[in-house]
Amino acid sequence: MTGSSLPSPGGYPLIGNTIEWARDPFAFIDRVVDEIGDIAQFETIGGDVCLLAHPDYAERMLVSQRSAFGKTSDFTAAFGDGLLAAEGDQWTRLRGALDEFFYPDRIRSYTDTMVEQTRRRIDRWADGETYSLADEMKELALENIFATLFDTQLSIDENTAIRTAANELNGWFTPTSWALPDRIPTPARYRFRQAVDRLQSKAQSLLAAADTKPPTDMLSALASMQDAADLSDNEILSQVQTFIFAGHDTTGLALTYALHLLSTHAAVREQFYTELDTVLGSSQPTLATVGDLDVVERIIQEALRLYPSIHTIPRVTTTDVTMGGYRIPAGTETHLSVWRLGRDDRFWDHPTTFRPSRWAETTPQAEGYAYLPFGAGPRQCIGRRFALLEAKIVLATIGRQYRLEPLSELSVEPQMTTQPADGVPVTVRTR
């Protein structure tokens, strides 16, 4: 295979770009792309990393040459035999067993439950009180996952162990840990391993209860089809761990950023309230009305562009690959920057401006591989429709009753997901 060696930004002896990558990954990626281009290689203590930042490379990684880009070992560490980590025949078996719970009709059937869970949480809010928006939205998303997929009601004021464990799965993927070899212990990795143990324990209790229930929720159905679908106990338990993390963290973050952006953009906020008052009036969102909330949908699409919950898609090359005239050797950890793609002025007008109206003139599909908050190709996020419906319901339900006043500037720090630098404190005001 021909091709030149990957260009590099250079770095310090022995540690390469570890410090710059760990301190501010987004700023570092911007510097590399601006100075070198859409494909480059940088060095960390944990090994060399290839950076990709162009829609054409995204298409090749995720679609046309996806077999040349496998999942990294980090996925197995975090999700065991879960759908996010599985490859090949195992992924095909798991995807087939899980698909029915994410068909459009099944997802639409969750509408009333999502409204109920949202009302249950925000009815506790009081005018003039301050809350951590990030905590509230992540916990609400977790409650929705349990109520819909696992047919289990989480107590709002209890279950602190499961809530803490769900959040601390990010610990494996802090920049300071990600830049180091797996064998080096860090406090974040210690918390991560504790979190995995707690989630595994919760998954085992849910699976034990599932054996006594009709197969109507995801876990009971997986248990009932275990033999027919050739699923091991560990594979079923890993799905609980996967969906607890992926289903609550990413959606909770999307809700956090959308609501904060609304709170700081008065003109968009007024359009938002006008639509809610016109479409919903004094009623709660329903399956019949949620589809008419076009402004709400555009707000979510734009928030996901600016603040994608998954800011990078990591893979490892399974064979030598040539891209852009350069050779990526087999075994190279490769990161596709979703964050950079969504903020690149070659693909977006005024890319750092929150402008939901842009989505009145285009669609996510039309923007192709420049817009990847849910990935792309056969392995596009299975929960995409679920998350988008939930986000519309939550924004509409909150917006009918409250407006939020931000108490801090929005700042983010990438882990596995795009985490806020603080809890995103807001004061709640009754409309």
Structural commentary:
The protein has 431 residues and is an alpha+beta fold. It has a single domain (18-430), classed as Orthogonal Bundle (Cytochrome p450), CATH 1.10.630.10. It has 18 helices and twelve strands. Helix 8 crosses helix 13 (233-263) and helix 14 packs antiparallel against helix 16. Strands 1-2-8-5-3 form a five-stranded mixed beta sheet, sandwiched between helices. Strands 4-12-9 form a three-stranded antiparallel beta sheet. The chain has a two-stranded antiparallel sheet with strand order 6-7. The longest helix is centred in the middle third of the chain and has 31 residues, at 233-263. It has helices at residues 18-23, 25-35, 55-64, 73-79, 88-98, 104-108, 111-122, 133-149, 160-168, 175-178, 187-210, 218-224, 233-263, 266-279, 287-290, 294-306, 338-341, 384-401; strands spanning 39-44, 47-52, 69-70, 130-132, 312-317, 321-323, 326-328, 333-337, 402-406, 412-414, 418-420, 425-430.
Quick structural summary:
The protein is α+β, with helices and mostly antiparallel strands. Helices cover 48% and strands 12% of the residues. It has 18 helices and twelve strands.
Give the SSE map:
Elements: H1 18-23, H2 25-35, E1 39-44, E2 47-52, H3 55-64, E3 69-70, H4 73-79, H5 88-98, H6 104-108, H7 111-122, E4 130-132, H8 133-149, H9 160-168, H10 175-178, H11 187-210, H12 218-224, H13 233-263, H14 266-279, H15 287-290, H16 294-306, E5 312-317, E6 321-323, E7 326-328, E8 333-337, H17 338-341, H18 384-401, E9 402-406, E10 412-414, E11 418-420, E12 425-430
